Amino acid sequence: METKKRSNEMELLAGARWSFYCCLIVDCVGRAGGLALLWKNEMDLEVLNFFRNHIDAVVKGLDGEAPWRFTGYYGEPKVNMRHNSWSLMHRLDGLSDLPWICLGDFNEITSMEEKVEGAVRAERQMFGFR
Fold first, then answer.
1. pTM
2. All residues at 6 or more sequence positions from 105 whose CB lies less than 8 Å from its CB, including other chains
3. For 68, what's the count of Cα atoms within 13 Å in the CB-facing half-sphere?
4. DSSP at 82
5. Residue of 3, 101, 98 whose CA lies nearest to 23
6. Which strands make up the sheet holding 54-59, listed edge to edge?
7. What gap in Å lies between CA 95 and CA 14, rounded to an integer?
8. What pLDDT score does 127 carry?
9. What are the distances in angstroms from CA 51 to CA 24, 71, 95?
């Protein structure tokens, strides 16, 4: 999830306040972005890759459970750059056959029915996300 925080702030929150002693933190840029993936010591997790708007990891099965993939994601806030977000999602999709959950703020909706108020979104803008 987007943190809007620097890594030193997140490390303090993760360990001292929330008792998560394993973490990967991607710094925010100014007051935007920033990601954090926090997990407990007993969880077997391997970070595959990360950049300013995603953290991709494999969660290895506990007690014989099958491994699965987790991606924390923050989509491009600028509309004219969102095509980069969708390209990245397609590349990440092709990296593994494991069951995959991708959570975060995509900065987009799939249809106007999701929107409660505010400006109308162009259909072409939502199409890339679908």
1. 0.79
2. 1, 2, 73, 74, 75
3. 11
4. H
5. 3
6. 45-51, 54-59, 68-74, 100-105
7. 29
8. 66
9. 11, 11, 15
